[in-house]
Amino acid sequence: MEFSGTFELEESTVDEVWLALSDPVLVEQSLPGCEFLVRVDDTDVDFDELRDEAADREVEPTADPEAIADRAFEEGGHYAALMQISVGPVNPTFETVVTIDHREYPSMSASGEGSSSNSSFEMSSGMTLSETDDGVAVEWETEADVFGKIAQMGQRVVSPVANRVVKRFFSSVQEQLRERQLATEGDATGGTSDPAEGDRGLVDRVLGRSGSDASDS
Q1: Do residues 116 and 92 make contact, with C-beta atoms less than 8 angstroms apart?
Q2: Does residue 135 contact residue 11 with C-beta atoms inside 8 Å?
Q3: Preceding omega of 61 cis (within 30 degrees of 0)
Q4: In whole angstroms, what is the distance from residue 174 CA to residue 12 CA?
Q5: For 89, which of 54, 154, 208, 215 is 20 to 30 Å away at the CA?
């Protein structure tokens, strides 16, 4: 199955969107049905242990480049997620492990697999950010092989679900970007600048941008 589309985030810059999408905490809280999204050492994962550890976490999305740099997605890194997705009459919870295959501003790609009691999938996906007149366009694509009960429902059932998840995800990202912008505007009177201007080296590190690229921006 193949899915693709373009989602537009208004009144944002490519740097702001890339910084937000570099934060696993923001992505976790924006993904519908996601219980946790955490970095793991390899693809052999104990999800019961991760669930217990996730229950004790106290983390919040942030626009602080230093905080994001410490936990940002890394090329070659493995990330485990527990997600519940409603597909027709079933509500499977997928134990999923994803690897970041490529991450170079402004594009990223990943691959992985997930399984539930009666279904499983393998997937590869990618996205590229570009400026528009009103903000940022996120061009995304996913190729997935689906097995088990969900596969029996066919692409005509699965495709609307995938599109709905993506729409809800980016709508949540848009909302969190607006909250960051409002917070930045509120802090401006106290002398706090845009986080993307506070420490250029940290921002460029999170963006995955080389020094020559940074000097051109």
Answers
A1: yes
A2: yes
A3: no
A4: 9
A5: 54
